[in-house]
Design a protein that fits this description.
three-stranded antiparallel β-sheet, 1 helix, globular, signal
Length: 165
């Protein structure tokens, strides 16, 4: 039993920069961050516009219009979700951590809510997101996912062309 636990800890350290894994979180740069999945990456909750909840294990974005919720989704063989169907993605809090409240209601522009509660509004580009790590870009500024509590995506605006007489 001890040998298996030691081997698992070494594997997680080798696979992920998260380092030592505790019961409900991992250590990154000396700070406890989120729930850690079997592969060593952080888990995210994805809330769809229809109210459905999906676990992203790990979270990825093969491109700016698609979110991957599994390793296979990053390689076009697994489950992906069109960004337009996603209301928001939420980081899972570390043990003893409380995330700020998620924005409620419909938003007209994307919103990034950071772990410290700061909110910024504007189009979010899924710049480099793989294995629950990476950055998103908003107003030309890269935001590390370790600082993010939520990314809320604006509902697509449907414009109808008015028929002219």
């Amino acid at each position: 039993m001890t040998t298996i636990l030691i081997a698992a800890a070494v594997l997680l350290t080798a696979v992920s920069p998260l380092g030592t894994v505790r019961a409900s979180g991992g250590v990154y740069g000396g700070v406890l961050h989120g729930y850690v999945a079997q592969g060593g990456w952080r888990q995210w909750d994805v809330r769809l516009r229809d109210g459905t909840h999906v676990d992203a294990n790990p979270l990825g974005a093969p491109d700016d219009t698609t979110l991957a919720v599994s390793v296979g989704g990053l390689t076009s063989r697994g489950r992906t979700l069109p960004r337009a169907r996603v209301r928001y993605v939420a980081a899972r809090p570390a043990a003893g951590e409380t995330l700020p409240a998620a924005p409620t209601g419909r938003v007209l522009d994307d919103v990034v809510v950071r772990r410290d509660g700061r909110r910024t509004v504007g189009r979010v580009t899924l710049t480099r997101v793989a294995f629950s790590e990476g950055v998103v870009t908003q107003h030309g500024v890269e935001i590390d996912l370790h600082d993010v509590a939520y990314i809320v995506f604006a509902a697509q605006r449907h414009t109808r062309e008015r028929a002219r007489p």
